[in-house]
Amino acid sequence: MAQAIWASVLSFSSRVLAERRISRFKAMLSLRLGLLLAFASAAGGAVLRVPVERRPRAQQQRSELEAAMEQGVPHDLAEGDDAPRSATPQVRVQDREDVPLENSEAMAYFGDIQVGTPGQTLSVIFDTGSSNLWVPAVAPEKKVPAAAPEHSPHSLYDPRRSSTHEATGQEFELLYGQGGVSGYWCRDDIAIGSLTLDNFTFGEATDTKELRGYPRANFDGILGLGFRALSEDNLPTALMALAESAQLDDMVFGFHLPWKGHGELVIGGVDPEHYVGNFSFVDLSHASYWAVALDAVKLGGYMSLTRSRNAIIDSGTSLIAGPASQVEALAAMMGAVRMRAAYTVACKEAESLPALAFTIGGKDYSLSAADLIVSRMGPFCMLGLMPHGMHFWILGDVFMRKYYVQFDWGRRKVGLALSAAAAHRNRTDILV
User: Fold this and answer.
1) Cα–Cα separations (whole angstroms), residue 71 to 3, 107, 132, 211, 344
2) 115 with 155, same domain?
3) Which end of the chain is more exposed for a tag (fewer CB within 10 A), N or C?
């Protein structure tokens, strides 16, 4: 579902049915690679908090901008899958679980989960654009160590070390815009901080070599926070398992994605310290996605809206992605130049750029130049804006850093509020 600059990736979902939907690889593992869950349990275990912090990228041999542009590919939807058409109470801090997220250069956010018994730690991208969990695993027939080779940043799940692992013998293949992963569905216990998913079905990926860019990613796998309609093989999702287990008082979660420093995923509520004002709630416009009706897209005084009537809010996409014709028109109006998969502007001109606004529920959510610029290479600033071939917009991490989003799974709504970080950020602070 989205395209993000390689950290934006980070939203791999499960393998899409080849016939209809190509499971979206959300901006393939990069820009947002940062949800390093430092799981801190909350009193009562009703809420989970996951912290986020910056982690140095894996060794790179090319320029950061070049790598970012290569990685910026959005989650893919099968052709013809025209996505989306068609005031929740605030949860008290003590009633939720907070998970720390790691921020990889403000491009990707990931956190840790525990897999098996005893728990094996793996880092995953928490992806609202997909619905399955997969982690890299040791091939059952191979006698290899339970960790990836020294030159690789990845840890591997070793089912032989888990007393609760249960093999199914069922193969899976998840296809993304950047390739795919394959392996076997299995069942084992999963822990996200103090929250547990007992005997949960997920993918142990024994072959990741076809997933382009993965060797340089800072995360190991992907944990989907989407709906069952997107789940490969119609498997129960993590959110379904949490709801059925009654571990949370409210099936709500929210992301705090900072430009710098630690971030946080709160499951079971929201953190008032991470947003200002009140939430504006909007019903979902599609049963399969975290999508909302889009009233308009504006750049300064210019309004653009043709067939793009929906926007998907995707934590697995680093950037903002939109229909190619509209993105190209907006970029031209900003004086941006296309460099491979991304648009750049002269940094000295960036401050004078008009604001880009998305009208949702009758309210404008604007992004200034400081909000849109994600990286700088010499005199050039890269915009967090990318084109894709579908007729809807994807509001990824660039949008979610400016606006705190409350995902209400139980009521099928999303709430939007200005993030506290954005409220206190200097508009002239162009670079992350």
Assistant:
1) 8, 11, 22, 11, 16
2) yes
3) C
